[in-house]
From TrEMBL:
<keyword id="KW-1133">Transmembrane helix</keyword>
<dbReference type="GO" id="GO:0005464">
    <property type="term" value="F:UDP-xylose transmembrane transporter activity"/>
</dbReference>
<dbReference type="Pfam" id="PF08449">
    <property type="entry name" value="UAA"/>
</dbReference>
<keyword id="KW-0472">Membrane</keyword>
<dbReference type="InterPro" id="IPR013657">
    <property type="entry name" value="SCL35B1-4/HUT1"/>
</dbReference>
<feature type="transmembrane region" description="Helical">
    <location>
        <begin position="101"/>
        <end position="121"/>
    </location>
</feature>
<feature type="transmembrane region" description="Helical">
    <location>
        <begin position="32"/>
        <end position="54"/>
    </location>
</feature>
<feature type="transmembrane region" description="Helical">
    <location>
        <begin position="133"/>
        <end position="152"/>
    </location>
</feature>
<feature type="transmembrane region" description="Helical">
    <location>
        <begin position="164"/>
        <end position="187"/>
    </location>
</feature>
<dbReference type="GO" id="GO:0000139">
    <property type="term" value="C:Golgi membrane"/>
</dbReference>
<keyword id="KW-0813">Transport</keyword>
<dbReference type="GO" id="GO:0005789">
    <property type="term" value="C:endoplasmic reticulum membrane"/>
</dbReference>
<feature type="transmembrane region" description="Helical">
    <location>
        <begin position="327"/>
        <end position="352"/>
    </location>
</feature>
<keyword id="KW-0812">Transmembrane</keyword>
<keyword id="KW-0762">Sugar transport</keyword>
<dbReference type="GO" id="GO:0005462">
    <property type="term" value="F:UDP-N-acetylglucosamine transmembrane transporter activity"/>
</dbReference>
<feature type="transmembrane region" description="Helical">
    <location>
        <begin position="364"/>
        <end position="381"/>
    </location>
</feature>
Amino acid sequence: MVLPLIYDWSTTLGLVFGGCCSNAITLEQLTVHYPIAGSLITLFQFVLISLHGLPRHITWTRYGPRFKPRRIPITPYLVQVGLFYLISVLNNAAFGYKVPMSVHIIFRSGGLVVSMVLGWLISKKRYNPTQIISVLLVTLGVVLTTLSATPISSSNLQLDDKDISAYVTGIAILSLALILSGFLGLVQDWTYGNYGNSQTPSTELSEKSKSPPQWQESLFYLHFLSLPMFLFLRKDIQTQLRVILDSPRISWSASLPPRSILATYLESGQNTSSFISLSRTHRQSQTLTLSLHIPHAFTPLLLNTITQLICVSGVHRLTTRVSSLTVTLILVVRKAVSLLISVLGAGIIPGIGGGKAGAVDQKMMWSGATIVLLGTVLYSIGTGRKAVPTGGKEKGKGKKE
């Protein structure tokens, strides 16, 4: 009984920490050298996650494939898809405006502020003093961390107006993504509140039971339904792909049998191409050498796409095993680990830190990161307490954290 439990938890935490931290590393390696490739990275991630989930959500009939019954109607998914797509594109696009990975990680932790404000304005929620104080701490931490990487924080007084303008634009993009994330959270709360615990008619129970779990359904449809929206970015994606293809290449060579069908191709003189080339070691040699020339950026791009799938799978799997409070705490620790890797890995891990470890005010950044971590943990503790009644009787569904 103990060993299966240990295995299950080690697998889940391995997916979360291994997948998400590796994803942060490969993302930084890509964006340092190709900061404008955000849309291409997002497309690759969405395609892989959609292909991975497609077999679980279709069933074959004599008339061909069809989607399995959903637990949630398509309309709420469409609203979430629009917001989710914009958030993903904006977050990746911010790398094109000189926003360091360390600031990117911490700044996105400021979603607590947006969620609280929108919850108070739209959902009429009330918050206890612990939650309010924690949000103020997170806000202060985000401000300090954001300022730590601005050109103003550098000891070099020769400021570049273009760099400052680009950085401010990147922060504005991240701010918009945070606001949209807050709205997405409200939509998801409404959706799961209305359909997550709804009673399923007995006539549909047998069909619904054959469908994947709700977290897998949401993961699939949020990515799959977003794919057509990339048509609006096709020109940017084509440009980004062309830049990736023109990047420096890595070559792998392998020997082929002397008598093969490729010999005809070699003798025809068409033995060179941009990705594959065939050659002989010597003119009279019968040994063929096959060489593959792959753009250097393809390796981190492929690894980033795979680790993104591992990361989101681990997070969704975690939500089925523990309360939302525990999920929040684990993800906060994961962000701290990613930040530590990003800062301390500068100059050690290739592509991490952009080779400019001194471009960030270390004291200011670590102070901000510590305050964000403290505020987020304090917010989670405050959220676990009894909610402040909205008037008269406390409204709830009996759910316990």
